[in-house]
Amino acid sequence: MMSNRLAAIGLLIAFVALGVAVFADDLRGTAPPSPPPESRSIKERTLEVGKKLLREKVLGEPAQQAVEAPTGSRDAVALTHMGLGLLAIVLGVLAWIQKAHARLAGATIAVGLVAAAWQYVLVGLALAIVVLVLSNLGG
């Protein structure tokens, strides 16, 4: 009985992870709107570039590079749904080892795997749709 409870908790965690994965863009929030472009004349821009070149070439000052914030390949939302998905997989395996109902433990593992690898699931789904459309075109 305890093993079924473990699989059920794992399945609940897997569905939470899947929900986080599906709605990741909404959970990340939106970036503030970018400022409107400056409307400067060509003369002003040319003068600015000329001053910059004079500073770099004649005065020997180093060019000031725009500092960009580092962009990581993973953020907190992605790590959350991957971590919860992996936790669900582990709970599903533990439940299967403890002789839980095979379908419940298998579902826990499967949904946890889908949540952990959500971006690859979307790529696979897109490829499947393309193959389906192309196979029906030959008709």
Mean pLDDT: 81
Classify the secondary structure makeup into a structural class: mainly alpha
Beta-strand content estimate: under 5%
Shape: elongated
Folded structure, characterized:
The protein is elongated. It starts with a helix and ends with a helix. It is built from six helices and no strands. Helix 1 packs antiparallel against helix 4 (76-97), helix 1 runs parallel beside helix 5 and helix 4 (76-97) runs antiparallel to helix 5. With 139 residues, it is mostly helical. It is 71% helix and 0% strand.
Topology:
Elements lengths: L1 H21 L1 H5 L13 H16 L18 H22 L4 H15 L1 H20 L2
Helix pairs in contact: 1-4, 1-5, 4-5
Brief summary:
The chain has 139 residues and is an all-alpha fold. The protein has six helices and no strands.
Protein traits:
139 residues, mainly alpha, elongated
